[in-house]
UniProtKB/TrEMBL annotation:
Residues 482-586 form the PTS EIIA type-1 domain. Keywords: Cell membrane, Kinase, Membrane, Phosphotransferase system, Sugar transport, Transferase, Transmembrane, Transmembrane helix, Transport. The lineage of its organism: Bacteria, Bacillati, Bacillota, Bacilli, Lactobacillales. Residues 103-460 form the PTS EIIC type-1 domain. This is PTS system sucrose-specific EIIBCA component. PANTHER family: PHOSPHOTRANSFERASE SYSTEM TRANSPORT PROTEIN, PTS SYSTEM ARBUTIN-, CELLOBIOSE-, AND SALICIN-SPECIFIC EIIBC COMPONENT-RELATED. It catalyses: N(pros)-phospho-L-histidyl-[protein](out) + sucrose = sucrose 6(G)-phosphate(in) + L-histidyl-[protein]. One of its GO terms (molecular function) is protein-phosphocysteine-trehalose phosphotransferase system transporter activity. Its EC number is 2.7.1.211. CDD domains: PTS_IIB_glc. Its main location: membrane.
């Protein structure tokens, strides 16, 4: 499939300005236009990755297949539709507040991580050269290298404004201007010699002045508010006047509002949070070190580390050092030990090669994800070994009060970021983590024999059997009143006219697609067969009404687990055809044997895939 398929489709329908609305269901893009004459239907149909096109129910539909979600994202990327890209076909369920918070923090900080890491290593090198006498701290070279490595922290609110604006859907350049105004010398000079807390005024309103360079929270709060203001302004201001008045009013409102409200609030909250974490570290570094060093890799699995990263960045920006960063290094080297233990323990040549490459990834880049997901999660016991190693070395590092002077990922190449009085303790702690993690993993084992037995068992089964996911009248796929399915363009399969509203898993596997509209679900079996179940025709239009899901994307399911329920009678009364296709989307080269058609009960074997 063409990687630029989405953008080519957008161009051939007349561009963003010709599209009134766009969404997608389980198989196709659905669009409406201002001028249908601009749509080059024939050219779209010939694109690599487009199965067919059609017009139905007042919508222009481009049939893509299971890859429709990625194509949709390509279409809406960098367009006015991007902020609504969850649309009717987003596979995510409604998120709880914790998930939203973590996703938001990750989206804001991820783009800055390479810059933070590179600046941290450069800062460490400058400190090393200074300490060994190769660089004078009064030289111009020292000054140039120092500003090169610390600029990221001085201008951190501006950088965060830019990434926050992208995350919240605000104008990124206006966001930069808002935070840039608050670190301009003229604004800073209002404090005089009073420092933080000096009171000035704006049209008679008191302003508590703060220094905003190196701060984190004020930029995020300000840009979030900016995004809301811009959306409101775009609704009430005529389109022809957006260019001038949206940015004008946004700057006029947000710069004073940030200086009066969000800035001081963010500074005080950020300092309080950082002080709390630092107080916990100071209370008992041994216990805190063991806990953070041990639990950090588990936090990475669930993305929870994003809640702590801002604290570390804030500490380094404000205090010049941080005590949590060394503990994340401890966790990394505990995982490195688990990778080494796996390397020494495994009998599989491919796993031996993979574990060694995962080990190098940690040593030279401080990146643990290959080891976490490819070893620890896969075999389980190496994760325990990593936790033990990280906790052992983390206790020593925390107890000895090791400092980091830059925000970096713990690896061999980032050691310069720890150069100082506590460097030797950091190195000893890393050695403890690695050795203990390795030994613990070797002792615990990796249950590789069980993994091999499971794989052999799977292979010995030969055929994959698919059970009927819902009771009803089984018909041939070519009898479905939708040419996308009946033509076989989506793949081989059959369809069911359901007797009830309960859909069950047809095999053991994983939920790989679950649409927010709840009308379709994609499953991948343990043997790799991909199945799409589409409940009814055009039921995406119900936008999830009358459907209830019992699983979420990524869940493992067993044959017979309930997946979705729906109000069959109510959907039928609304005029929708409930014929439900079951399509094996990756079976073009596979031998599939279907059972007889007719009335059948849920759970009966309906297909066998060789």
């Amino acid at each position: 499939m063409d990687k630029q398929l989405g953008k080519k489709i957008l161009e051939l329908v007349g561009g963003e300005e010709n599209v009134q609305s766009i969404t997608h269901c389980a198989t196709r893009l659905r669009m409406s236009f201002k001028d249908k004459s601009k749509v080059e239907d024939t050219a779209i149909g010939k694109l690599n990755g487009v199965l067919s096109t059609m017009e139905k129910g007042g919508q222009y539909q481009v049939v893509i297949g299971p890859a429709v979600d990625s194509v949709y994202k390509d279409v809406v990327a960098n367009t006015k539709f991007e902020s609504d890209s969850s649309g009717g076909g987003d596979s995510q369920e409604k998120k709880n507040i914790v998930t939203i918070f973590l996703d938001t923090v990750a989206g804001i900080f991820t783009p800055l991580l390479p810059l933070l890491a590179g600046s941290g290593v450069l800062r460490g090198i400058v400190l090393l050269l200074t300490q060994v006498g190769l660089l004078s701290d009064t030289s111009s070279t020292y000054t140039i290298l120092t500003v090169s490595s610390t600029a990221v922290f001085y201008f951190l609110p501006i950088l965060l404004a830019f990434t926050s604006a992208k995350k919240f859907g605000a104008n990124q350049y206006v966001a930069v201007a808002i935070m840039g105004a608050l670190i301009m010398p003229d604004f800073m000079n209002l404090m005089g010699d009073g420092g933080n807390g000096t009171v000035s005024s704006f049209i008679g309103i008191p302003v508590v002045l703060m220094g905003y360079s190196s701060t984190v929270i004020p930029a995020v709060l300000a840009v979030w508010c900016q995004s809301k203001l811009e959306k409101f302004l775009k609704k009430i201001i005529p389109l022809s006047l957006h260019l001038l008045f949206v940015s004008l009013i946004t700057l006029l409102v947000m710069v004073p509002l940030t200086a009066i409200v969000f800035g001081p609030f963010g500074v005080y909250v950020g300092e309080a949070f950082a002080n709390l974490v630092n107080a916990l570290m100071s209370f008992n570094g041994w216990i805190a070190g063991a806990f953070i060093g041990g639990i950090w890799n588990v936090m990475v699995i669930f993305g929870l580390q994003w809640a702590v990263n801002p604290v570390m960045i804030q500490n380094i920006s404000v205090l010049g050092f941080d005590k949590i960063v060394p503990l994340t290094g401890a966790a990394n080297f505990g995982m490195a030990g688990a990778a080494m233990g796996t390397f020494l323990k495994t009998k599989d040549s491919e796993m031996k090669s993979f574990s060694f490459s995962a080990l190098l990834s940690i040593f030279f880049a401080g990146i643990t994800e290959p080891a976490i997901y490819g070893i620890a999660v896969k075999y389980k016991k190496p994760l325990i070994g990593a936790v033990i190693g990280g906790a052992a070395g983390g206790a020593f590092i925390g107890g000895m009060g090791v400092n980091a002077y830059a925000f970096v990922f713990g690896g061999l190449t980032t050691i310069p970021a720890f150069i100082g009085d506590t460097l030797v303790y950091y190195l000893i702690g890393l050695a403890i983590c690695f050795v203990v993690g390795t030994i613990a993993t070797i002792i615990l084992g990796i249950d590789e024999d069980l993994e091999e037995t499971s794989a052999l068992s799977s292979v010995s089964k030969g055929n994959e059997v698919i059970s009927l996911p819902i009771s009803g009248d089984v018909i041939k796929l070519e009898d479905v009143k939708d040419e996308v399915f009946s033509s076989g363009a989506m793949g081989k399969g059959l369809a069911i006219i359901p007797d009830n509203g309960n859909l069950y898993a047809p095999f053991d596997g994983v939920v790989t697609m679950l649409f927010a509209t709840k009308h379709a679900i994609g499953l991948t079996s343990d043997q790799g067969n991909e199945v799409l179940i589409h409940i009814g025709m055009d039921t995406v239009e119900l936008n999830g009404e009358l459907f209830t899901t019992y699983v979420k994307q990524g869940d493992k399911v067993k044959r017979g687990d309930r997946l979705i329920s729906f109000d069959k009678d109510a959907i039928s009364k609304k005029g929708y055809d409930l014929t439900t296709p079951i399509v094996i989307t990756n079976a073009a080269d596979k031998d599939i044997e279907f059972s007889k058609y007719g009335k059948m009960e849920q759970g009966i074997e309906i297909a066998s895939i060789q």
